[in-house]
What does this fold into?
Amino acid sequence: QLFEMDDIQVVESKPLLVDRDLTVCFSVKRQEHDVETPHGRIHCTMKGVPKGDRPVILTFHDIGLNHKTCWNTLFDHEDMAEIMQHFAVCHVDAPGQHEGANTFSTGYEYPSMDQLAEALPLVLKHFGLKSVIGMGMGAGAYILTRFALDYPNMVEGLVLININPCAEGWMDWAAHKISGWTHAEPDMIITHLFGKEEIHHNHHLIATYRHHVINDMNQFNLHLFVKSYESRRDLEIERPVPGSHARTLKCPSLLVVGDSSPAVEAVPGKLTEAFKYFIQGMGYMPAASMTRLVRSRTASGSSVTSFEGNRSRSHTSEGNRSRSHTNEGRSRSHTAENPHGRSHTDSAMDTTANNNVDQAVTKSTEVSC
It folds into this structure.
């Protein structure tokens, strides 16, 4: 890590990591709130205290999970301690999915994916937040993307894990109908969360998740959430073309795709490192240590590729950081298809003007999971 103090530079040879066996030297304030929305109460857990104009990390889980089972592996990882010192985290649970949730009445109409996205501005208002960096998995990734499309000024960045931007097709609908006749819903959720290879070989992990889905989740509420996700519509995101007004994300985005198991569970260290790099690209945490990805490139056969333009000092010095990415001139994110089952990040950032022509400097990092 590099710290600049006037004309003196002090270099640490080792990154500051928190030992698993040691108590973290700073306390993290934790608050649980039930936020009232037109579509019911949303249970939220705020960890840490929001810091000035800095965004808060806002998470949203997948079906069959809640914020604890979806994100604890990641946020309890030792490398996340550094990030937690810089950002507060707001975990959002979909209605009725948190621990100890009461069963909805028979006539309750569960909110659609669009309605859940529409409820998030009320969550920000409740906590007095101006903007967030969204982190979602599966259904949660879909909801946060819809939120970013409808309220771009509230979202500074997105981390999307295993997102499906398309509505369920006829073939999917038929497959789910047939599976519903022959398999219980917990088994259908397991096939959504894990690939066939993981299901057939990692019996302990699958048994752990199946036990959670059956014993810890409110089955009636879970069924409503699953049906809501299956009824989603296309996000209708388009790649921006010069001169057009395509509907697309206006914030940098980190796309993570895994073909075996949730990346949060499989490689939390690698995902944390990619997240640090992503945050640094947004202009935050310029001194964050970047060691794990370098090791994985040389030792484990993982591939890490970075393509960058010339970065201005405004993106490497937090004190003089440019806020251009929060204004209308912020660059647009490009979501790229990844058919190889490898984690892929593709964010277009740092838009600059040259002779009145905007030129997007694309930065891409690819990490295999």
The chain is about 35% helix and 20% strand. The radius of gyration is 21 Å.
